[in-house]
Amino acid sequence: VIMATNRADTLDPALLRPGRLDRKIEFPLPDRRQKRLIFSTITTSMNLSDEVDLEDYVARPDRISGADINAICQE
User: Fold this and answer.
1) Model-level pTM greater than 0.85?
2) How many other CB atoms are there within 10 angstroms of residue 65's CB atom?
3) If you write DSSP's letter for every residue of 7-72 in order, what string do you get?
4) Alpha-carbon distance 30 to 63, whole Å?
């Protein structure tokens, strides 16, 4: 069983007992370098206007996920 959540603190403690979920893997939100790489990877095949400066998005203090970045790029 593989589970995903953005709110691990709200999981029922019964799910977390030994033998139920044996391995916990966390993926923290991307740092500035990782955001730059994600934006670059997603937009590589896009025909962006010269007015678009991805660094403006990378420099924002927003705590955004890779999925958030993908959504921004699709707008």
Assistant:
1) no
2) 15
3) -GGGS-GGGGSTTTS------PPP-HHHHHHHHHHHHTTS---TT--HHHHHHS-----HHHHHHH
4) 8
- Is 35 within 8 Å of 64 (Cβ atoms)? yes
CB distance 39 to 73 below 8 Å:
yes
Q: Identify the residue whose tokens are 């890779």.
A: 66
CA gap 30, 20 in Å, rounded:
29
pLDDT of 57: 86
pLDDT in tens, 11-68: 898 988 888 888 888 889 999 999 999 999 999 999 888 888 889 889 988 889 999 9
C-alpha to C-alpha distance for 43 and 25, rounded to whole angstroms = 28
